[in-house]
Amino acid sequence: MNRIETDREIQIPNGAKAVTAKYRDHKLSEYNNNPIIQALPPISSPAEFLDYVTRLPKFSPEEKEFEPHYRFHCIERLSRYFDPQTNSIELHKLICVLLMQGYLGRNPLKPSYAQRSRQIYEALKAKDGKSLENYVTVPSSASGLTLIGPSGIGKTTNLINILEFNTPDIFLNGSTRLSEFMVQGSSYFFKVSSASDLEKKILSTAE
């Protein structure tokens, strides 16, 4: 579940579910006049974020007297437990900024958006994706981040909870400001899993 305001949920041809976007004006003017950013929810406070993502397991004291095969099921509730810490709040603020700032340079209402998309397409068609800088001249507003830490400390869990809080999986942009008849499908993020021993060089150069 996410906080995106939508008209309805529909099924797209590949079988996935998508939502039709509703648009809002944000308090910060630079985030307006861009349908992709305006489909995102308002910037949330730390309290709103905590209230939404915190998941505490159900528990009744009498369950301690249950037979072992019942208590085993009760323990499994901990797999859905999520109690965000201070680092979670800071990560949420950072990802929210990365999302909204990153789409400043991806405004489908501006010619530079189509120009950059065309340049990337030409690079991929030439099978020279390792040298995009030879083709793409339109600057990007996108930034990135790296999370580093031992396995099992909650990096992936935090990231997925934050992204689901801020974005839909797939949305259909039916803004009449794009065109009366144009509908654009978008996905705000993709999750790519890899083996823990995968070399960084292989991942960064994969086609």
Q: What are the key terms here?
A:
single chain, 207 residues, alpha+beta, four-stranded mixed β-sheet, 7 helices, 34% helix, elongated
Major sheet description: 4 strands, mixed
Give the total of domains: 2
Query: What's the helix-strand series?
Result: EEHHHHHHEEH
Detail the poorly predicted runs.
Answer: 176-183
Counting helices, strands and paired strands, the structural category is: alpha+beta
SS summary, helix count: 7
What is the share of helical residues?
25-40%
| Strand order of the biggest β-sheet | 1-2-3-4
Spatial shape: elongated
Strand proportion: 5-15%
Radius of gyration: 21 Å
Distance between the termini: 32 Å
The whole-number mean of residue pLDDT values reads 77
Strand count: 4
What do these coordinates show?
The chain folds into 2 domains: 6-106 and 149-205, no CATH class; 109-140. It is built from 7 helices and 4 strands. The protein has helices at residues 35-38, 46-53, 68-75, 86-102, 111-125, 155-166, 200-205, and strands at 6-11, 17-21, 171-173, 184-186. A 4-stranded mixed beta sheet has the order 1-2-3-4, with no helix packed on it. It starts with 5 loop residues before the first strand and ends with a helix. Residues 176-183 have low confidence and may be disordered.
